[in-house]
Amino acid sequence: MQTTGAIQDTGKSPETGRLMTGAEMLLECLGREGVDCFFGYPGGVTLPFYDALYSHHIRHILVRHEENACFAAEGYARATGRVGVCCATSGPGATNLVTGLVDAMMDSIPIVAITGQVTSKLIGSDAFQEADTFGITRPATKHNFMVKNVHELPQIVHEAFYIAKTGRPGPVLVDIPKDVFQARGHYTPVDNIHLPGYRVFTEGHTGQIRRAAQLIWEAERPFVYAGGGIVAAGAAPELRELVEMADLPTVCTLMGLGALSSSHRNFISMPGMHGSYAANMGMTECDLLIALGTRFDDRVTGQLQQFARHARVIHVAIDPAEIGKNRTPDIPIVGDVKRVLQRMIKAMQELEAEFGAKKKDARRVWWDLVRGWMEEHPYDRSRDEKIIKPQHLMDEIDRLSNGQAIVTSDVGQHQMWAAQLIRFNEPRLWLNSGGLGAMGFGLPSAIGAQMARPDKLVFSICGDGGFQMSVPELATIASHALPIKIIVMNNGYLGMVRQWQTLFYNNRLSAVELDCFPDAEKLAGAYGFKGRTIDKPWELAAALEEAVKEPGPYLLNVKVSPDENVYPMVPAGGAIYEMVLGPPQPVAVA
Amino acid sequence: MLQTISILLENKPGALLRVTGVLSARGYNIESLTVAKTFDPELSRMTITVDVEDRLRAQVIKQMNKLVNVLQAVDLTDAPAVIREMVLLRVRCPQESRTAVLKEAEIFQARVVDSSVEGFAIEATGDPEKLDEFIDVMRSYGEIEVTRSGGVAMSLESKKLKLQPPVPAPAALQTT
Ligand SMILES: Cc1ncc(C[n+]2csc(CCOP(=O)(O)OP(=O)(O)O)c2C)c(N)n1
Ligand SMILES: [Mg+2]
User: Fold this and answer.
1) Cβ B89 vs Cβ B135: under 8 Å
2) CB under 8 Å to A357, separation ≥6 — which residues?
3) Is the peptide bond before A222 cis (omega within 30 degrees of 0)?
4) Closest to A350 measured CA to CA, from A217, A204, A205, A202
5) Is the pTM of this model over 0.90?
6) Do B36 and B96 sit in the same domain of this protein?
7) SS3 string of A262-309?
8) What does the alpha-carbon distance between residue A41 and residue A444 come to, in Å, rounded to a whole number?
9) Is residue B139 domain-shared with residue B73, that is, in the same domain?
10) Closest approach of chain B CAs to the CA of A482, in angstroms?
11) Cα-atom radius of gyration of chain A, to the nearest Å?
């Protein structure tokens, strides 16, 4: 029995336990962590591991590129909250994982990545397929490990899972040399996690929580700014209770969509660069900003000096380093947002009699103002008779999903329109690369999501650019007959870049035209499933319905108006109330 | 202004790089860094001197505290603390100034660790400013060669360090 997790480097194995190879130990650990499937791609140094896997019950999904193994693991993790696992060989396999790791880091997604490494005695010799994975991935992970000895393998693997899923979740990589996979050792179950420098704050400061509760009752113009932390903490029920109790207008960030149901009457929309007028005006005019599980990202705040300029700020975050990073809060609360909200709700109940009714009139005026903004400038859902507008496409997907489907998105204009126009009635339905904005995320993440949630309708919305970054994964989808509905919003451009060139670079469209998109029917057909291209607005609804009805995968290539821009838009560096609400109106020439 | 950071971290491969990575990722140049293991051989104590903008100092400390291998990072810049550094210095000096050099060394409470016809090797400790002066003075006697250790610092506040106790692993990991 190990009493501490201190690395035992004695070369002597504990006397007890079953004798097995490192590869078998790893599988044993994955099993104990409840891993039912993982995503990977084999190679020379992981051969011993894949050999052990051959006769093991854990399911391995062979992707077609390691980057997609990590994205798929993220899709799995984002859709369930469980740790997603991916695996790659040394050298190029490991370097291919890096984008996915950084993506998981930026969005706080629990991932354990296993990489093979060259045999211990070759490390540092520029051996074939050697890369300094430990060094390369250090800033790309929450933490990483290199296993030097088979006896320390179980402890490290369980610590990796522990770090990945506790506190602010994130990716953890375990680098395992080939000889460690092959070495034999006695496997003893791990009975504690020994990480003396790893602290997780959960409860929040009692006094601050009480003060926050009082401020919420006392505010005349309170506004909730809820982020991905609510989703990560499973705090959606608490958020809802809080919001209903004090009747608070609420925005959910790009990462937080679904934290409060989009159909909830207190839900305003998404704030930020492409957020709604009401969301951004609410942020600007509120006198109390209640920031929950969120990090004041620059895409949300715009120019910081002008952000929530009249407001006092309550900031609840599990990561102390986020508190005061971009905005100094009046009430900082470090803790697990679920736990903190439970306690805050309790404190509010206690104070309700005293303060609850006081600001009723002011609150009504505030709500009128917010509703006014919502009615004044709702999102554009306009349609056209001749051409499919992107908004029309998202509106139709929204109709079919009805707030229930899982929607993964790639990065670009389609992502913003999807975030604006599709409702998510629960957390873990909207999966997108928020912090990193990594094109190529949309398709592989849908693989992970569909594996994790076979019961769910999964849409994968991609741009014609991003789709082509992960096109090899059509093979993975076909091979497992995953009934993902791949919807390509085809505008013939790297649309989001084109939008910036149009608006800020005199419409000099440089390297953004995407000619030569493959024929969707033939492409899908080549993989053995159905596909279709449409470009008529009257075909859209039926085509989407057909895709959804199809029992297998479906590739629907939707040609949309190429010149559409996403609005509202806060120009980079601007204050969020300085929104450009739409294209310049044509001026009648006399 | 220079910031002095004292860090207690696990004595593990890569731990040092994680800490310096917090600084290098933000483009900061480390002025000096010392590290050695503590009483407990599983832990190291590190002192870093670095030039960080005032408004980002707290953030840097938080980022370091966030590292899994770091038990505690504290900013000693404005806190009660002693900071000491060591200098090894060789000075080449003509016969006639040998006594003067020895006299100066004595004033700075430095120790001669080697003596030859060419000059002396001298060891001095003190706060970094005092050592700057010492070096200036020695330079006035002749050609010098200097190695500095970088600061080692110790807080004079009795801050309690809360150690994270081992966490019991979930039952599922233990049963066979
Ligand atoms: C890997 C990667 N490379 C480049 C970018 C920069 N980028 C952001 S959006 C975008 C255009 C995406 O085009 P498309 O996939 O067609 O989506 P659209 O904007 O047209 O909806 C680009 C190139 C990125 N986000 N990720
Ligand atoms: Mg496009």
Assistant:
1) yes
2) none
3) no
4) A217
5) yes
6) no
7) CCCCCEEECCCCCCCHHHHHHHHHCCEEEEECCCCCHHHHECHHHCCC
8) 14
9) no
10) 31
11) 25
Confirm if A427 and A230 have CB atoms less than 8 A apart: yes
CATH number at residue B53: 3.30.70.260
Hey, which residues does A37 pair with through a beta bridge? A59
For B87-130, what is each residue's pLDDT tens digit?
999 999 999 999 999 999 999 999 999 999 999 999 999 999 99
DSSP string, A456-476: S-EEEEEEHHHHHHSTTHHHH
B105 and B128 in one domain?
A: yes
Radius of gyration over every alpha carbon of chain B, rounded to an integer in angstroms: 21
CB A281 within 8 A of CB A372: no
What is the longest distance spanned by two Cα atoms in chain B? Answer: 81
pLDDT in tens, A320-376: 999 999 999 999 999 999 999 999 999 999 999 998 888 888 999 999 999 999 999
Dist. CA B22–CA A139, nearest whole Å:
9
Distance of CA A501 from the midpoint of ligand 1 (Å): 13
Mutate to test the interface with B, among A105, A192, A201, A304 (most CBs of B within 10 A): A192
Contacts of B14 in chain A (CB under 8 A): 134-135, 138, 144, 146
Q: Tell whether B93 and B107 lie within a shared domain.
A: yes
Beta-strand relationship, A250-252 and A222-226: parallel
